[in-house]
Every structure is written in C-alpha cells, then in structure tokens.
Amino acid sequence: MGNTQSVKPSVTSIISYEEALSRITGEEYEHLQTSYDELLVFPDKNSFVCKAFLGFPEKFSEQLYKVFAPYNHLSLERLLVGLVIMIRGTRQEKLQLLFYSMSTDGSKVSQEEMRSCLVSWGIDIPRSIDFLFTVSEACSFEHFLKWIEKFSPSLGVYDWILQNEGYGFICRGVRAFQTYHQFLAEQASFTEKQVTALEKHYIKLRKLFSRSKRFDLEAMYQCLHPLYTHEFSQRFFHAFDLNKDGTIDCRELVIGLSAILEGEDSFAKFVFDMFDEDGSGVLQPEEVENFSRMISTFCLVTDSLKLDDTLPEGTIPVSEFVHWCNNSLSMYKFLSHLKNIVYIVFGVKPDLTFNIIRQWMEMEANMNLITGKMYYIANNEWFKGSGGIVNNAPILAPGQVNGHKPVPSITTEGGTLRRGLLQGVDYQIISQVLWCTLEDWYGCDTAICRRARLTPSGTVILELFPLKLNFYKQPRLAREAMEALNVPPLNFQSSIEFNAVSDIPRHVLSYVGVFHSEDTLSSVIEFLSTKLKLGREDLRLWKMSSNQKLTLLDETEEKTLDSLGIKHSNNILIEIRNTDMSWPEEVINIVTQNRDIDRRAPTARVNGTTGLNNLGNTCFMNSSIQCLSNTRALTVYFLKGLYQKELSQNNPDSLNGLLALRYADLIKNLWSCSSRTIAPLKMRWTVAKFAPQFSGFGQHDAQELLDFLLDGLHEDLNRVTTKPYTPLNDSNKRSDLEVSMEFWNNHVARNRSIIVDLFHGQLKSTLKCCTCSFTSVTFDPFSFLSLPLPENENVIIEVFVVRLDPENLTTQYCLWLNNEYTLNHVRKRLIAKIPAIKHLLFVDVEDSAVKRVIGINEPLHNINFPLYAFELPGDGPQPDDYVVVYSRHYATIDKYFFDWQHRQVKLFGTPFIVPSTSNPGISQAATIQERIRIYLIKMYGFDDDFIDEMMFNINIKKVKQGGRDCCLCPWKELCYGHKLMEDPDLGDCGYLTVDWSSAVVHLIRQYDDDVTILQDSSVKEAKQRQSQPVDLSLCLKGFTKEEEIAEWYCSRCLSHKNAIKKLDIWRLPPFLIIHLKRFSFRGGKWEKCKRTVSFQDSFDPSPFLVQSSQISLSDRMRTESVTHKTVLVENDGGDDYDEVSIASMDDDEVMNSNNRNPLESTKDSLSYITNSMKPSNVSKKCNDMRPFYDLYAVTAHTGQLGGGHYVAFAMNPNRQWYYYNDSQVKKTTKKRVLSEPAYILFYERRNLRLDDLLPSYGDMDRYGDTNFDYDASIIMKDVLESAHRSDKKSCAVQ
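The structure assignment produced for this chain is given below.
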C-alpha cells in the first residue's frame, strides 16, 4: 500500500503504475491506450466526466477526478491505475480510493467533507457516522477502514464498486445487432452488398436531382426526362411510394426495384400499382384506358384483357391483371423498359451490361439537348472495349497525363479536350444519369462534363471548348505582416520595417474552372462565393498578367468576361477577406510597398469616392472617417488650408497638432481622386499613439472613435490657448435665456474651434429634488445626441404544439406577449387558437428528452424558449392520465473504458404523449402499446404490415424523465428500463421509451430528418411586430423623458437625495450627429439591440426643442446670433491674424472688419441659423423658419456584437449616395440608405452657407456668398486643384 500522507492524494499513492500494468493483459492495455488517445483529446475534467466515466453519477465522477488528476491533467498512467483499482483492486484499495476522493490532503477527512460528498452523491448519511467523529472532527484512513468493517454503511455507487466482480475493460461476446442493410436485404431479393450500393446511388441521385433534399416526384422526373414523359414518371413514382407521403425512401426504393426484377407476378403487381390511382385493388375503366394508352407508346397491344364476369363490367382485379400479364407477349417490351430504368437510373448492375448501355445511349441519341442540363463526354474507344475503368485520356488535350489534373475543378467540368474531335468517332455524349451509373460500375479516370446552353440564334449546343480559367488563392497572411501594420516607424515617414518579406508565399494555383465569355463578372463572383461558402462581399477577383501584375476586376458595372479582356487560360486571383475584415493583397501591398497592384478605376472616379484599406478590424475607423470626410464644410476647411492658421501646438490639452495634420493629409488624398484606395496607416498610428485603447486588431466602437476624433481635432484647432477659469453658477430661478447664455459663453471662452462651430449644441439639464422640490438647471454642450433605443416590453414566445393525434402535425406558434406575464397567458392564447385542445403540458426539450416540466405560473422571463407544449388527454377540468414516450436505440462503440459502456443509449426524434387509461377488457400495458403502434403508423406513414413487423423488433420500457435509466432500478444495476409487457404495472412511472432495433432506426431517422413542422400565421405576425422599426422620434422622446436618479446632492437639503432628471435640447449645431445607443452592458456582458430605427432623409427636430413661454423669439434669436461666427482680422504686423468673436463686437466693428461683407449679409446668414433654433410655440409668422435638417451620412453596423462590421453611406456633392465598405466604394440608392441598421446619423441644416461657417482669411472670401448645398462640387473641384498645385506628394499610404 502506498503512502497516505501525500499533499495531493492520487491513485498512484495507492498502487504503482507498474503494479497496475501487471494486472491487465497486453490487449487490454492497447485498448485503453487507443480509447484514451481518441476520446480524451483534451484530458480535462469535462472529458473525464462525459467520456471516461460516461454513465456514472456526475457528482461522483467530478469527485474522483481530483484523485485521478491531482494536478488537473489526466495522464494515461494515472487513468490506467485508477481504472485497475476500481475493476481489479482489493477491497482495501477501493476503500482508499473512496477515502482520497473525499479528502483534501489524503491524510484525513473532516466530518464536513464526508457529509458534503455523500450528499452530492445522493447517499443518505449513515447514522453511524457520528461514531467516526467522536474523538475529533477529522478521521484518518485507518479509522475510516475500521468504521466500514464494523458498521458496513450503505455507500450507494461505491457499493457497486466494492462488489463489482463481473466487469472488465473489453466487452466480449456481445450479440451483433442486425444492420439496416441486412434488414432491407431480407425484405427484398438483393444481397446486403447490393443494398449498400443501392443506398449510396440513391443518396447520389437525391443530391443531384432534388431541390427538396428528398427523392420526390420532381427528382424522379429529372432522372427520367427526356426519355420518358411526365405522366410516366408520375405513375412510376406512384408505384414506389408505398405510404403515399410524396417521398420515396430507401426502403421503398429497394422493395420497388426488387418487385420489378424478382419475377413475373411481382412485376405485374408493380405495374398494376402504377395505374391503381385510388389504391382500391381494382382497375376502373378509366384506369384501364390510361394503362392501354401508355402501353401503346411502348409496344403494340394485341392481347385482349379478359374480364372477370363476377365484377362490374370494365374493371380488372389485380389477380386477373397478373394472369393477363403473365400470358401476354405485349408486356415484354414494357418490362424491358422498366428493367433498363432499374439498371441505368438506379444503378443495379446486371450480369451483361454493354447491351443495356448501348440501348440507353441509342434512346438518348434521338433526344435533343436540354438547356441547363449537364452532359458528360466519354471516350468512344472505351465503348468498343470490354469494360474496366472508363478511360478518357485519349480525348484530353496534351499535358494532362492520364487525365489527372494538378488541381481540382471548381466547376466540375473535367479536363480540356483535344481539338478536332468528332462526335461518334472520338467521343460520345451521355446523360448525367448514365454517367453516374458508369462511374459506380466501373470507376473513371476523369469526368468531363459540359452544360448545354442556348445560343443567341436560339439553338441549344454543348460548348466543348469553354473559357477555362486558372484560379489562384493566397495562403493565410503571415502574422508578422499584420503586426507590422500595428507598429509605426519612428518618424512616421519611413517605410514599414518588415523583415519577413521574402517569406510571404506566392499565390497558389488552387482551382480551374470553365465559364462562358458572355458570363458577367457578377455571376462568376456569385458562383464562386456560393461554391466556396463565402459571403458575397468577402470575395473579390484580380486579373493576373504574365509579369504577375494584379488588376482588380471591378464588378460595379455589369460587364462580361469578354469585355473585361478575360481570355482562355488566364490566371485569376481569388482574394478572400481576412477574419479581421482586411484584404490580404492590400496588407501585403502596404507592408512590402509592392507596385505590382493596379487599383486604378477602369472609368473616371468621382472626387470623394476613394476607399480606405482595412488594416485589421479598422472598419470602425474607416466608416467614421468617411462620414466626417463628407461633412463638406469641415472638408473645405481642411482642403483650403484654413487649419494651418489655427493649429494649436501650445494648448496643453492638444495632441501637438499631429491629429489635425494627419487628418488634413488624409482628407486631401481622399478627395484628390489620384488613387482608388489608400491605406490610412499614419492616421491609425496617430490615433493609437494618443488613444491606446484603439490599437491592436480588436473590434472597437465607431462612436467612441468618432468622439475621440472630434475632441482631438477640437483641441488641436482650439483658438483658445490659455483657458480661463469659468465658475459654474446655479440657475437660481433666473430665466433660461440668461442661464443658457452664461453657460454657452463660459463654454466658448474655453473652447473655440471649427469643431465647436460645426458640431456643438447645447442641452438643458433639469434636476428636481424628490424631497424638497428644489430645482437645478444647467446648460451643457454636446457634440452627439446619444439616443436610447426604446425596448420592447413584449417578446416573442416560441412554442411547438405537439398534438395527441399525429395526423395533426406539430405546429410552431409565436406569441407577442409581455415579458412579465406567466406561462398561463401562453396556455390561454394557445387554447383560444386551438379550441379542440383542453389541456397542455409545457416542457423544455433538450436532446430529444424532457429536461424539465414547467409550471403555468412560471414568469416568461425565467424561461428559455422555444418550448414544447404537449396536448394532454381529457375533456374534464383535469387531464386524464398519460405517459411521455421517447424514441431511442442502442449504439455500439469501439472506444470505451468500462465494458458496459460498449453499448450506449441514444435518444432521437421528438417525444410524444399517449393516454395511459386502459380500454375496457384490455390491460393498461396492452392499451398503451396499441396506442403507440397507431401513433407510429400515423407519425411516419408506415403501412400496417410493416409496422406490425417492426413491433417485433422494438421494446417498450419504463424509464426516468431523462429517458436513459430505469425508473425502478438503482444506478448500480445498469438497467435501461423494465419492459412494459413483462412488468405491466406503471406505478409512478410517467415516461416510456420505444427502443428501436438498429435494423430499423436508420429508416426512422430518415423520416425524423424530414419531419414537417407547420407554421401558424402567428409566426409571421410576431416576427413582423418584432422587426417593426421604431421611429427616430420615439428615440428622441425617450431621450427627453423624465427619469429618477439616486444619490444626487441637493444643495438645499445638504445631502444626497433621489431626484427627477430631465434633458431637453436647447441649441442645435449646423451639423447634427445622432448616435443610436445599440450597445448596452447587461448581466455582466455587452449586448446589441437589433431593432431597426426608421429615419428620414429630411428631419425636423423642432418638436423636441425645449419649450418655454418665458422666452420671446426675438430674445432667443438675438442670443443665439452670436454663437458660431468668428472673424479673423489682420493685426498691425499684417502677417498674423487676431480672432474676434462677434459676441464681443458691435455692428460697426463687424461691418468694417477686414472689409468683409456688409452687416446685412452677415446678419441675414446668422439670422437664418438662429431662426432655425426657435421654440415650437412661437407665433405663426415664424412657422417657415423651422430648423430642417438633411441627412448626408450614415454609419451602419451589421452582424453580432464582437463579430460585426461597420460600413458608411454618404451623399457626395454631386447629390449621389455612395456606399463605403472599407476599400470598396460604389453607388447606392437613398432607399437602401434609409433601410440600413443605422448606428450614427449625420444631419446638415438646410441652406447653410460656407461664409457662415468658416473663418475668413482675406483671399478666402470669394466663396462667401456660395450656397453650399448646390455649388459644393464646384468648390471642391477648385479647392482640390489649388491643393494639388501646392502639394504633389504621393498619397498611396497615409
């Protein structure tokens, strides 16, 4: 025995690894080692409990884990030692393992530890435990051993371990279950091998020809067309579909094919079923006529049908029909057709194949090609041979040895054909159905297929030599390349240091594919994105020239491959966006300074439509910059160089002017139209330098970045270098006009910049003490209106209702209810919708078992939806007795640690309910079994004979709620349930299982995968309500509504009190930014609100401005007319400028300053701005002065939180909306913009003038009278030309 005093108790302290190894055989060790390697890939606690100790009580397994893995790593050695102790250990060794599992240090166990372990294992605390701890609160192993020997307490699961003598490591002599293929082979005239091959061919046909993923009538028609008519396909399908559910499963197919091939009687019955439409067993006159008409298309009917005199005239029973068929030569040709279908379409290989193949090909040769269908090219020499693999090498172009391609074909067209081939001499054209069968029978070296297409002249051709393209991909971008983008050079001007340039792999040829020259680029990209399972916008194509130069193929215009200059054997690069939303080619180009990429637009670009490269999850920055860039007054300010006069490098709060300089350079390049895309590297480095939270490649908030940009630009351009002290005085019952001006003057005394002029407004904040009613009013500046999204009090309650009668299909309901309601409200709503239902049982179904039954008084917010609601039997006030029935089967596995784990229980399908009350004269068990039988017939559509046969292969057992364990036996019995018919007394057992044999579970699962669930109209209605957009006005109302806050310091009460807080909009800026607060922190995690916000391109905020009857309109206008305008006048030196605020100048000074516009012009412009701020209760005379705002940019966020993507939409000065998705920029429509999931909205006050917004420096005055809305494009063009003359630096990387 090992040392019991180890600090961390371990199984190796009980016996050594060598001792354990000596107790098992080499075969057992190999089995345990293989099971460990395959099942415990991650040897942690979860794997130990769920895989190694599968079937044991969970709490017991968790306690044992600390002994098996004292250092939290389950090694093979310790696992082997522990298993040997449990299976082949002595009683004392097993008890020591139990002791260690309860002990912390292995030396002693406290009474608290032992009680806690026994309770968690579900063991009743033995009364004798007090004797163990009479001396002290902890006992040693020796005392524990004496206590066990003296009192023999019941230890539950450990009793099984102590008494276990019959279990081992390897399961021997287990009865082999009958397989599904063996079961079908017994029902048909096929061998097990043939059934297996038939199933594979059936699955292949279903994938090729069925859109519904079932072998339905459409799939049958596609297989037989054009050789056979739709009517024939329909009748042929009808004979196979035994349960008439509109689908042929593998069993029905095997039985039908066997009937055709088995003999004359079975063939005749199959043909009879083709025309017995009503299933009456008698052909009616109309059905006989249909039979005669169809047979005449295959052969000449010369035999007369002898009628049975005892039946009504003109009808033929099945026996008479079979007799006629067996004596009729006319049916021989029809039988030949059906057999050919069995061989060629369904792949049953006959003894002699070539005659059948030639007959089928002769039939196909008489048919025209069908547009869109796939045809295969086969070497004609092969058909003259004697079989073997289909060899297409002789008809392939040189260079393709034996037809083997170096890369796979993404269009599955196969190899390139030699020129000069002749049909019928060198090759044959065969259908897809025939090729599938040849491939199964013989195999093939290369499948050469072509799709039939319609030419402009109206003929259908098979293009043998389509446009073949070579598709390249780039390997995953080296991590070093991405890291290089995150580390700025020392001087921000030198090249990026990247030592692994030579290690970046070249593009790799990955696919070949064929297309037609008239195919559009968009259709090719659509095909590739579908084939590669990528998002449409996560893929783009580049044309690779002979010198490896890349040219981006622009899909913004619907151009064909021919018009793009794509020729045969051209190389095309498939670029796939990285997970961080960057494009590999862009990153490599930036890192390596590669000049082999041509991004120039094929047509002239528009100023302001330059894209920004994604540098690794920088979409948040790109979208914000694009929206700011389209704030035209700010852009003109930078393009005209006005920022150079206002850089504030002495301001201690500034960023030394670096952010303004980087932004100015970036704006010039965005509007210069000299490059299709640019990389905002310097801007990113500058942002990361001053705001480290935005560094790295993580995802960030676009609004937070925008806030940083505006604040940083403001401080860099602040005209106030020394900020004065400004006291904050309380309102003290003064008028709002006076207080607002005091706060605003204090604000502009410290903050005066172009950012303040354009984006800053003012909010009125009112706080009222709930105790003394003292009211405090302050006026605070804002650059954003951050609006909350109103939350729905109602939620979608999704419920699947399972009826007692399975003919009433399971139906999905979605109810729109208040989240505070109880489940009883759901019950009432469902019963109102389905009057036939009287009682419902609500359960949470997980892994095909009832996880928990939910009471009707449970609040909805405590429930995880969807739920299942089972209809209960009974018409009275209380439901009748019932049982819940599961479906399960036993799966045998090869890798396990205890031999009884070799067979495991697997539940499948949806549980169902049957009444448990017995019928008169019949036992309860027999009644339940019969009800289950009827339910299965209706549920799966089985015919009676088949379900009766299956009932001999299933068992009905009594189980616990989980569906895996017996409800009567303790765990240690390893019982999976008592058979109902052998132990008919249900007792308290409310759950049964239908244990299917493995022979039929395969078939059951085919049905289970295709179980139809109906959708009630409430599903669509509820989803429409949930997706119904919330209007922007509701967000503004939520922003301005009163709310109660806690712990506000009341200056009258001189203590912290609850208060009522209300925000009002007092002053709006020329450019209004609205932030929709989609992200919130709840329950310890961030969540995204996905509600759609309805907003308009024209916006009137006047209803939401503060209303005050104490303020006259004239006072309001006079006060606000001094807010934004700043005039810069030359000082005595003539070179510099002094800033003078209009607020400190009289009218004469304004008129004479720098000889600018007359006072009337300035006053008119300022009056327009201030008039837009009027209260909503002014006189009717001013109604035409409401502050209308026009939408000019939107930042949208799509996807989930942590995995989403930002894009921008902006209106260009040419009045065209553009979509900015990082480097991709294309035209879009206003309709699309207004339907996007907006995150930030940018509005511009209508009819603004540049003269009113920009500071003046003499020669800049020529734009003073320009209306910005209508002539901005002219201004931009003029300014850009001037900027180009003064700055000709490269703008490829900024």
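Interim note for the steering committee: The mean pLDDT is 78. The chain has 44 helices and 45 strands.
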